[in-house]
Write a structure and sequence with these properties.
The structure is a single chain. The chain is an all-alpha fold. It is 77% helix and 0% strand. The radius of gyration is 26 Å and the shape is flat. Helix 4 packs across helix 11 (239-246), helix 7 crosses helix 9 (195-224) and helix 8 (182-190) runs antiparallel to helix 9 (195-224).
Length: 286
């Protein structure tokens, strides 16, 4: 027989449970801290080197605090063609986002709400469009664009970027609409709304966070894409194509400045739409 009383045994088990909870909480927080550091630390180093002079960057020991020397950024921003390439990237990314959402939302709604022959085949074909690598398609696309007059245009480049982003947009919105009960739309029909009114007044407010996430995905795909932009544009290059072709032999401090300018608009865009992304996971916005 054990010499411990029932209360002592219960207290011991409670302490053991609390110890395990603390251990798992510590492991969870440690994992989150590691992942956040893994993502933010390279960005921090990029910011530090972008705000430092060439002597500080190339010197030793390395400095983990910015020297707040704006010479490299000033040189890069005033480098001929940078501001125009930055504007082209923004225009192409916004065009891509609008077209991808404009086409992907109806397609996703149709996949979620209607049953038709070949539905699963169509869903598979959407994914197969991403099976063709861009280097394989670049030359035929360039020939087609020259024949139809879309060569070296931001609209033509946006169409290519939309083709890259549209499959994910369709699948994301389809899953999104599947999660919204059809009974809500049927209730709106009973109350006098037609299908379009029920979609706009009932479904769209619920789907807005997910649509925003899909729009962010399309924006980032267009913003980061470099191969099609480098092949299909000459005078209307995006910032990524401009950096690859014009600054490949530049000093390292200028490359750091270019990297900072490249990621800054995407970060600002995510910051602007963050409340919709938080709402998608039920996180309260303050």
């Amino acid at each position: 027989m054990s010499d411990l009383s029932y209360d002592e045994i219960l207290e011991k088990e409670i302490r053991e449970v609390n110890r395990k909870k603390k251990m798992w909480r510590w492991l969870f927080l440690s994992s989150v801290a590691f992942l956040v550091s893994w993502i933010l630390f390279p960005i921090y180093l990029l910011v530090v080197n972008s705000l430092s002079s060439a002597d500080v960057i190339n010197g030793f020991p390395k400095n983990f605090w910015p020297a707040f020397d704006m010479e490299s950024l000033h040189f890069f921003v005033n480098y001929y063609g940078v501001l125009g390439a930055l504007k082209n990237s923004l225009i192409a990314a916004l065009f891509t986002m609008v077209i991808a959402i404009g086409l992907g939302t109806p397609a996703g709604y149709a996949l979620a709400r209607f049953d038709f022959r070949g539905k699963e085949t169509f869903r598979m074909l959407i994914l197969l469009t991403r099976a063709f690598p861009m280097p394989l398609l670049a030359l035929p696309l360039a020939v087609i664009f020259i024949n139809v007059g879309l060569d070296d245009s931001l609209f033509g480049l946006s169409l290519v970027h939309t083709a890259l982003a549209l499959p994910f947009s369709v699948l994301i919105t389809s899953s999104l609409f599947l999660g919204i009960p059809v009974e809500l739309e049927e209730a709106a029909w009973v109350l006098g709304c037609n299908r379009w009114q029920a979609f706009m007044k009932v479904v769209m407010p619920l789907a807005l966070p997910g649509l925003t996430a899909s729009a962010v995905f399309a924006f980032v795909i267009s913003w980061n894409e470099v191969f099609a932009a480098a092949v299909l544009t000459v005078n209307n290059q995006t910032l990524t194509a401009f950096l690859v072709q014009s600054l490949s032999t530049s000093p390292v401090e200028v490359k750091f400045a270019g990297g900072l300018i490249l990621i800054l608009p995407a970060i600002l865009f995510l910051f602007v739409v963050r409340k919709y992304l938080f709402s998608m996971w039920g996180i309260a916005n303050r």
